[in-house]
Design a protein that fits this description.
This protein has 119 residues and is an alpha+beta fold. Helices cover 21% and strands 26% of the residues. It contains three helices and four strands, in the order H-E-E-E-E-H-H. The chain has a four-stranded mixed β-sheet, with no helix packed on it. The longest helix is centred in the last third of the chain and has 11 residues. It is elongated. The two termini are 39 Å apart.
């Protein structure tokens, strides 16, 4: 949805991403194997589990990070507009469906379908 709203190209389930010139080369996993896609920038890319290996923090680095100052910023400091751009007009429940009925055999099912005009 984000790519459609921005009118940007997208690549989903990326397992490898590399920059090639003015765009991206994305390898994505599909049912039949791997698919290579080239995108122009800017683009929306979603990641697969295998895209990155996590780095685990060591205890000394955790202790060092506690001493560093944490700068707090507002969206306005970053030039981001957080006002909603979509308006919900209404939310309605779907129509209630009629209860089903059981039939004893195939002949009764066919007769019921013929009576309802489906068959």
């Amino acid at each position: 949805m984000l790519a459609a709203l921005l009118d940007w190209p997208q690549a989903t389930f990326a397992s490898a991403v590399s920059v090639e010139g003015e765009g991206l080369a994305v390898t994505r996993e599909v049912d039949g194997g791997l698919e290579n896609v080239r995108l122009s920038l800017p683009a929306v890319v979603t990641a697969d589990l295998r895209l990155n290996e996590p780095r685990y923090a060591t205890l000394p680095n955790i202790m060092k990070s506690k001493k560093k100052p944490l700068a707090q910023m507002t969206p306005g400091d970053l030039g981001v507009d957080i006002n909603p751009s979509l308006t919900v007009l209404s939310v309605e429940d779907p129509p209630v469906r009629e209860a089903g009925s059981k039939v004893e055999d195939v002949d009764q099912l066919i007769a019921k379908l013929k009576d309802s005009g489906v068959f």
